[in-house]
Amino acid sequence: MGAVISVENLRKSHGEIVALRGVSFEVAESQLTAVIGPSGCGKSTLLRCLNGLELFDSGRVRVDGITLERHNEAATRKFNAQLRELREGVGMVFQSFNLFPHLTVLENAVLAPTVVKKVPRAEAERNALDLLGKVGLKDRAEYYPSQLSGGQQQRAAIARALAMAPRVMLYDEPTSALDPSLVDEVLSIMRRLDDEGMTQIVVTHEMRFARDVADKIMMLSEGEIIEEGEPQQVFRSPRDERTRAFLKNFI
């Protein structure tokens, strides 16, 4: 299967702090990739560069046939148009849910398709209800986020992202704000999407999930990918000393 995501020599700095140092990798269609590493190593920055929430300084990002390329110059009108197109094909789930608190669960899932893609309201509602059923929340469609548990809110956020019919799903620490008892109900949705062939990248500290479910592991350290491979290889015989040190509590 071909690469749905291709990243070449991606660089990003925040002032004098270098977040990404020439990162390159590919993610194949239907692959679930877990990005691991210590806090502050560039994991979240990498994810945000993939869907345009942060503008990378230089390099090339291609997602589902849409290419963004920069060489430290100002973003052009063409670049910004491609960025908008790319965002429509990439779903993003955050650790803090980011649901609109004044909208019901159903309205949260209906908003983007009707506004961005101009999907008729009735069709968007039918699709949203199907997706809420998929994540086990159809009976909570008229609830507001404040009336849901953390796990339910995160599942609602996944349904909202899926409502845009993305080719790729990105997750930034989707379980880190949850009580341990609620983690599995969110991870189970990601397992189901993996079974259905959704291409996914998840930044996570859930090492058991990364080991047991991911197709590929990428280990970041100080803005660089220092290890990349199948879970069995990375967890059982990591090549880099920094990977061994990071995983020593999990292997």
Structure description:
The chain has 251 residues and is α/β, with parallel strands linked by helices. Helix content is 37%, strand content 27%. It is built from nine helices and ten strands. The strands form two sheets. The protein has a six-stranded mixed β-sheet with strand order 6-7-8-3-9-10, sandwiched between helices. Strands 2-1-4-5 form a four-stranded antiparallel β-sheet, covered by helices on one side. α6 links the parallel β7 and β8 (199-203). The two termini are 31 Å apart.
Essential attributes:
251 residues, alpha/beta, Rossmann fold, 4-stranded antiparallel beta sheet, 9 helices
Mean pLDDT, all residues: 93
Q: How many beta-strand segments? A: 10
The helix content is: 25-40%
CATH topology annotation: Rossmann fold
Spatial strand order of the main sheet: 6-7-8-3-9-10
Shape: globular
Whole-number total of structural domains:
1
Q: What Rg do the Cα atoms give?
A: 18 Å
CATH superfamily: P-loop containing nucleotide triphosphate hydrolases
Largest sheet: 6 strands, mixed
- Whole-Å distance between the termini? 31 Å
In the predicted model, the low-confidence regions spanning at least 5 consecutive residues are: none
Second-tier CATH architecture: 3-Layer(aba) Sandwich
Class by SSE composition: alpha/beta
